[in-house]
Amino acid sequence: MSLLAEMNQKALNLGLPISVHLDITYRCNERCVHCYLDHDDHGEMTTAEIVDLLEQLADAGVFFISLSGGEVLLRRDFFEIVERARQLLFNVKVKTNGVMIHEKEAARLRQHGVEQIQISVYSHRPEVHDAITKLPGSLQRTIRAIRFLKTKGLKVSIANVLMASNFSDQQGVIELARELGVAYTLDPTITPKMDGDRSTLALRIPSSALKQVFHNQELVGNVEEFCAPPPAPGEDIMEGYPCSAGHTACYISPYGDVFPCVQFPLPSGNVRRQKFLDIWRHSPRLNEVRSIRARDLPTCSTCAHVGTCSRCPGLAYMEGNMRGPSTADCEKSFQRTGIPSANMLRRAGAAYTGPLIQIQALANSSPIALFQGEDSLLTA
Amino acid sequence: MAEKYIARSRAIAARMLGGEMMVMSAADSTFFTLNEVASAIWQAADGRTPLSEIVAGKICQEFDVDREHAQRGAERFVDELSQHGILLVSDQPLLDSAGSPERQ
Q1: pLDDT attached to residue A368
Q2: How far apart are CA A295 and CA B31, in angstroms?
């Protein structure tokens, strides 16, 4: 176990929040087609409120803080917030589209000791990237920002959200990242909008593309290992937690609302009405999230993938039940291993008697054969 | 031997977690956790107090350890953290140092 993983485990044991994602604005200068936010300002926290919140978070033990949005640089007090966060000795990561970063902004980020800047790039081709952001010239400005940041010695990573419209440019973005000397991360997850509108889901990459991603050695390393059938889950897996949301991490909106995670819109309190630690310790909703073990998931606990699935409880919540399956993650597990999830089998109406049966059945037959004529089940 | 003065760098992230200090260097992202004794040296690194005085006045008083042993351990600790830019070391007081961070 790495030192960082040990610290995470320690924070989990102590019930401490080690990591917070703080959106300081939902306003944005881009209008990305897949964005889940409402960009109007409905009463963002003031500078004083954010500074007070940062002090509370430091006192609560938070070490990692991601400042995100919206576009963070649209806040006139952005650098004041960063400076205060660094004075409080947070490890600060900034998520931005980079459009407003010039040499001066890059120098200030470096001066304040920001650990990492994550910048969204959708394609190496302006016509594709700019069509997604709906801001003409945005790719050019984003790349220029990356060069400024690199020149100042900052760590930069490109986040490449994959959709049907930019999937074929993935290799081009990898090469762009290489040329710029920055890290590359890929994310095929498209979520519903925060108001529940699910229209963005139509932008998701098709199943065949997801399979390609999971079988790309450059992205996943050892494909055989990455795509191996899941081992039978032990007791430790069944007693385990699904992810860090609400356990060692949480999300805070520009309006002070606290949620288990940015992808888990379960309102759990508001820092304008309560102290952060009161919410963290006593919110009935956060405590409910924390109480859930893998064994408590009615469908997923019977699934072969229970120990290896990337199941997102927030996406499950947005599907109607935080203890239910997240069909997007069922799809990922299936495309990765070729083994359908318990949820898929349930929805297919197949007789299902337990996780080992799934593996045994598939060992003797083509998994695809189980789904002939049921293609609709393979898409989230 | 010349006195050593130590001060915490500003180019770090740090937080106390259950009695251990987590420290990450902004320069090279090296991550350290400091045990109780190391955390005590870290907290006392104000740039003005000589390391020998920190060892004698704090470490030997608060922990059951002899002075020579504690001094050797402290020297090693300071050398390692200074290599990653986490502690600043000088043979003169570091008056312009980070001082006392408000919250760790």
Answers
A1: 26
A2: 34
Residues paired with B20 in a beta bridge: B17
| C-alpha distance from residue A8 to each of A12, A13, A250, A282, A365 (Å) | 6, 9, 14, 21, 41
Q: What is the pLDDT of residue A4?
A: 86
Element (H, E) at B25: strand B20-25
List pLDDT tens digits, range A253-285: 999 999 999 999 999 999 999 999 999 999 999
Q: Which residues, 6 or more positions from A155, have their beta carbon under 8 angstroms from its beta carbon?
A: A115, A116, A117, A183, B29
What is the rounded average pLDDT of the residues A22-26?
98
pLDDT at A367 over 60: no
Question: Which of A10, A59, A89 comes nearest B14 by C-beta?
Answer: A89
Alpha helices (H) in A26-89, listed in sequence order: 47-60, 78-87
Inter-chain contact A115–B33, Cβ cutoff 8 Å? Answer: no
Q: C-alpha dihedral over A315, A319, A325, A326, to 10 degrees?
A: -40
Size of interface A-B (CB pairs under 8 A): 58
**pTM of the predicted model, to two decimals?**
0.88
Q: How far is B98 from chain A (nearest CA, A)?
A: 10
Show the beta-strand stretches assigned E in chain A.
19-23, 64-68, 91-96, 116-120, 156-161, 183-187, 249-252, 258-259
- Residue numbers in B near A60 (CB within 8 A): none
Q: What is the DSSP letter of A153?
A: T
List CB contacts of A130: < 8 A, sequence separation 6 or more: A136, A137, A138, A139
d(CA A350, CA A361): 12
The band of B29, judged by pLDDT with boundaries at 50, 70 and 90, is confident
Phi, psi of A68 (to 5 degrees): -145, -175
For the cut 70, the answer to whether the pLDDT of residue A369 exceeds it is no
The dihedral region occupied by A196, where left means phi > 0, alpha psi between -120 and 50, and beta the remainder, is left
d(CA A113, CA A379): 43
Answer yes or no: do A14 and B18 touch at CB < 8 A: yes
Cα of B83 to nearest chain A Cα, Å? 18
The per-residue pLDDT for range A67-108, each reduced to its tens digit, is 999 999 999 999 999 999 999 999 999 999 999 999 999 999
Distance CA A307, CA A316 (A): 17
Residue A66 to chain B, least CA–CA distance (Å)? 13
Enumerate the residues of chain B whose CB falls inside 8 A of the CB of residue A20: none
Q: Which residues of A73-91 are buried (b: 16+ CB within 10 A; e: fewer)?
A: bbbeebbebbbbbbbbbbb
